[in-house]
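pinging the channel bc i need a second pair of eyes. not urgent but kinda urgent?? the chain im working w is below, pasted from the shared doc
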Amino acid sequence: MRINKLIYSLIAGCILILPPLAGVSQDKVVDQIVAVVGNNIILKSEIEEMFRDQQAQGITSEGDMKCEILERFLIDKLLVAEAVIDTDIVVTDNQINQNLDGRLQQWIAHFGSEKEVENYFKKPIPLLKADLQEVIKNQLFAQQMQSKILKNVTVTPSEVRYYYRNLKEEDIPMIPVQYEYQQITIAPDIDPAEDNRIKALLRDYKKRVEEGTNFAMLAVMYSEAPESRVGGEIGYLGRAQLDPAYAAAAFNLKEDKVSNVVKSEFGYHIIQLIDRKGEKINTRHILLRPKITPEAQQKASGQLDSIAEAIRKDKIKFDQAAMYFSSDKNSRNNGGVMINPETLSSRFSVEELDPDVSKVITRMKVNEISDPFQTTDENSKQTVYKIIRLTNLTSGHRANLQEDYQKLAELYLAKKKQDVLNEWISTQQAKTYIRIDNTYANCNFEFKNWIK
């Protein structure tokens, strides 16, 4: 079942980052074509380099890992071969470059710095990105092809019920302990003098750019945004994908011009327009956040303490207090009820909880209200204080239709997608020229028709 799991990881969009790139980090092995799929080839070096990388990561297999790696490549080549002749599937240079920039950020996060990335792959970032153009292009073709194959796959309630009733007892998934909770969040007040200090800094940076200083260099040096390592560039995004205040300023800019100071829910910015394509723009920015004083933190915590006490004494209901006092716009209009963004339900497993919430809620009883605690706002990443109320606790159990329909529907949809993709692969095998070197003739492939 290993290949099936790998296929589904592609359906979910979770393409592995490091293995396809590891080949550029090692000295070249003597190449040999080990497989041909249509007009695409698979090299021995690709198999060997991915194998070394998986060993380095501690990945093991009960079967022959090199055979599993080869089959992963074979499936990918089938998808790419079909995608390049499909006129509905287009991969642009802009998509490739955005993907490369995203990968760079992930490498930096993994290795710690650009220098460490260059040390690992033994080449400078620009050359590394150039070497990976074709790899990224093929991955994007494969992703789009998978999406097209599976776009109409859905499940109905009757299918889910039938699926569940025909599962063996041991195959019914275990549902972990799940928590449901409400929250009230208060963001500490910012001292006006600190506000003014931050805005003055950003005005100074704007002036320096207008006098010739490189914006990207200033972003690397001073910005508090995650994109600071790549000069503050955030890539092509539409208006709806940006904070409204940020979008309003950015979409009014002319190329290379720098905005006045803009306040968003993330802090204060100055923005430079890089390029505009249709309804999307590429910008870079410098983000600064005002520092919060200990006095403001104590005030926010004390306010929440008073609110919690009023709720405990039944002077006000939790949902009413959330609507009146909470600074979290996503939950306050819902009475403070938190919604799991992954499942769109109100249930969270321990792994799905914010770590700061998890530390508190796992020690609480149903209907108990916590003391105030410091955490980070999920959206703006700024310091906030919270109180939470545990509204329901569901013990771990085997899934059932009454409580866990959504989970069962997700599992059956995944199975149905897997079946559709498996059928597509088998059909493509039959009509595509495929040749595999004899050194892999004894592989126990998941799909039996690679070798004809």
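so Confidence is low (pLDDT under 50) at residues 1-29. and The CA atoms of residues 338 and 397 lie 22 Å apart. — does that match what u expected or am i reading it wrong
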